[in-house]
Amino acid sequence: MINSTLSIIILTTIISFPAFSNHKTIDDLIFQPAIIKTKNQWYRFITCGFIHADITHLLFNMLSLYMFGDIVEQAFSQIYPGLGTVMYLLLYFLATIVSVVPTYIKHKDDYWYRSLGASGAVSAIVFAGIFLYPTIKIGLFILPPIIPGFVFAPIYLIGSAYMEKRGGDNVNHSAHIWGAVSGIVFILIASVFFKGFDPLESFIRQVMDFMRSF
Known about the structure:
Layout: H1 4-19, H2 23-29, H3 33-39, H4 44-47, H5 55-79, H6 84-98, H7 101-107, H8 119-132, E1 137-138, E2 147-148, H9 149-166, H10 173-193, H11 199-212
Helix pairs in contact: 1-5, 5-6, 5-8, 6-8, 6-10, 8-10, 9-10
């Protein structure tokens, strides 16, 4: 059975692959704040998440989504009975938009700025998974999955903030940061409307239990 995560991966791959060699497709879908502002092409807030710079960019994002997507989607099915899939897709597409809002504000008058990729939405899913299961083991670069999620998270955010400030690598680190934050905020806001689950209490309890195990 194809779940939401696999559906997103398939759709993103189908759109991204032809775009690697089709500059018109990239130009039509890429996130370009100045064009959005002048031509009201607001759809680019979404379409930019379905195209990637190259195969490595695509594989990294889709592999990260595959590793965490099922975990988050299954958790959502338990936390939000009957609405798990809806909430999962809502998080993914809201994060796609929200993660590049700061980028739009910063570069809306910069006609040379362009950004693409699902990194913001994928970061939201990864951090939602970490927030729900903070002791989940995660690998860091060449390291195997040995770092607890609650340790990896601040390292990732601090590193992304540093890289964003330094600049010069043609990567929208701001989208990574705001995507990650949106994943956590989404769950916190949703918990207000869905009683019976306190995500913050669950996060603290799991981290404390982990610390006591040493």
